[in-house]
Amino acid sequence: MNTFQPIEILRAVPKIFQAFPTTMLILLASLAFSMLIGAVFAMMSLSRNKVLNAVSKGYVSFMRGIPTLILIFLIYLGMPQLLKQVGIDMTGISLTAYIIACLSLSASANMSEMMRSAYLAVDKGQREAALSVGMSPAAAFARIILPQAVGVAIPALGNNMIMLFKETSLAFTIGVLDMLGKARAVSAANYGATKLEIYIAAGIIFWALCFLMEKGTKLAEKAYTKGRKI
Amino acid sequence: MNFDFIREALPQVLAAVPVTLEMAVLATIAGWILGILMAVARRNKIPVLSQLCAAFVSFIRGVPMVILLYVSYYALPMIIYSATGIDATSVPAIWYAIAALTLDQAAYSSEVFRAALNSVNRGQLEAAWSVGMTTWQAMRRIVFPQALAVALPNLSGLFVGIIKGTSLAYYVGVYEITATANLLATPGLNFIEAYVITTLIYELISFICNRLFRSAEIRLGRFRPKTAA
Fold first, then answer.
1. Choosing among A60, A99, A162, A166, which should be mutated to test the B contact, i.e. which has the most B CBs within 10 A?
2. What number is the average pLDDT over the span A154-176?
3. H runs (alpha helix) in A18-94
4. DSSP 8-state assignment for residue A190
5. Predicted-complex ipTM score
């Protein structure tokens, strides 16, 4: 049995950190896309159309029921097979793009719920007051409702971002060299002799970054809500 | 779509459902008990223990599930070996997965229970004392049922989350739903079929769990404070 060598943890940290840009790229891209998709479904769930409501509800509960790993396998391994039968070739798409697509879809359900509840948290009278002073519905949304809803949503957005960040670690499952992928590669390079130390190092890096994100969220919330009544 | 494959694979994937449920249920029971203890420790601000719990929660919440699984899979045998001299490498992987999932549930549920305990008015405990109940009786009969009613919607989310989390146990070699589907799909490259089956099974499990928790919520609804939120 291998003995545990804490010094190896320190040695592994810089090596794993080399993959930090890849992880960040995945995180930021999926954050942006998941918010876009989430916004569409949030609008659908807030609309008065019953069909759109049902579609949005179905989408959210589907995405909440499927493990992200299965979604990744379904899209990365399954979808190209399915599309080949109808004559579409997907071999040119990069692995990172697949991961970004999967994480965006899986996070979009939470984003949609976050946006919906933030919108509903803004008092109805605000919109009515804005309309009564002659604002158009679009202007009332952009200038009155949205700024208040953003303030409400910041803590949830921070949480969603942290969850998304942790899920980026699944990128290794299809061979992307993100931080965990890099950790596995480093571990394989010495035949797994220090794998425990390397995984602990990866865990510490994730923890430290999550901690920073949590603090960042708190600061952002404070800065944003300062002087606003929410 | 290869329907012969589906017909052949479906019973085998379904046969792996109990493994997934076993992991989820055991980790949930152990994790929630730990979570309640941690919540009580933090609520009563027990020195040292309370800070340790806070650090533990922050750590578990910041580390991805996969890394947690790997660390428990590689570290626990070492810890057991150095502490007792027992060679634990032959312990089935599922127990290491359950250990990792338990830690995860403990951390997340302790936050849920803490918030729920805080939501119960302190006057409830004092009123229970004033009619002669011991602290334990007051907690068990008065405070806990009310806290549970508040906590249940979040606990339901945690349980569905752990069901989804078990899919990662595949990476430490547990043959649960995902691993079985992968194993069956690989020889004939029947990925789409295998993962459609898997998706449907997970969706069904999530749906049933949501329903069960929903009916529990309705039953416990009588413990909710009557005042409007």
1. A166
2. 93
3. 20-46, 50-65, 68-73, 79-85
4. T
5. 0.86
Q: Does B229 map to a domain?
A: no
Q: Which two tokens stand for residue A115?
A: 């946006």
From residue B211, give the alpha-carbon distance in Å to each of A77, A85, B147: 31, 38, 20
Q: CB distance from B72 to chain A under 8 Å? A: no
Q: Does B55 touch chain A (CB under 8 A)?
A: no
User: Which pLDDT score, from 0 to 100, does residue A229 have?
Assistant: 61
> What type of residue sits at position B187?
P
Taking the CB of residue A151, how many other CB atoms lie within 10 A of it? 20
Query: What residue numbers bound the domain in which B50 lies?
Result: 3-223
Residue B228 lies in a domain: no
- Neighboring chain A residues of B77 at a CB cutoff of 8 Å: 1
> What is the C-alpha separation between B108 and A221, in angstroms, rounded?
23
Comparing alpha-carbon positions, the chain A residue that sits nearest to B86 is A1
Across the interface, of B63, B168, B191, the residue whose CB is closest to A78 is: B191
Instruction: Note whether A81 contacts B: Cβ–Cβ < 8 A.
Output: yes
Nearest C-alpha in A relative to B163: A67
| Residue span of the structural domain in which A57 resides | 6-225
Question: In which band, very low, low, confident or very high, does the pLDDT at B67 lie, cut at 50, 70 and 90?
Answer: very high
Rg (CA), chain A: 21
Please list the alpha-helical segments (H only) found in chain B: 3-15, 17-43, 49-62, 65-84, 93-119, 122-130, 135-138, 144-165, 177-188, 191-220
Residue B54 CA to residue B95 CA, distance in Å, equals 25
Within-domain flag for A24 = yes
CA distances from A53 to A56, A120, A138, A192, B153 (A): 5, 15, 21, 51, 22
pLDDT above 80 (res B227): no
pLDDT at A1 > cutoff 60: no
Distant-in-sequence, close-in-space partners of B43: CB < 8 Å, separation ≥ 6: B114, B117, B118
Pick the residue of A23, A66, A204 with the most B CBs within 10 A to test the interface with B by mutation. Answer: A66
Residues of A in contact with B64 (CB under 8 A): 166-167, 169-170, 180, 203, 206
The CATH number of whichever domain residue A68 belongs to comes to 1.10.3720.10
Q: Is A175 helix (H, G, I), strand (E, B) or coil?
A: coil
pLDDT at A194: 84
- The CATH code of the domain that includes B125 is 1.10.3720.10
How many whole angstroms separate alpha carbon B203 and alpha carbon A141? 36
Separation CA A172–CA B65 (nearest Å): 13
For B150, the token pair is 């508040």
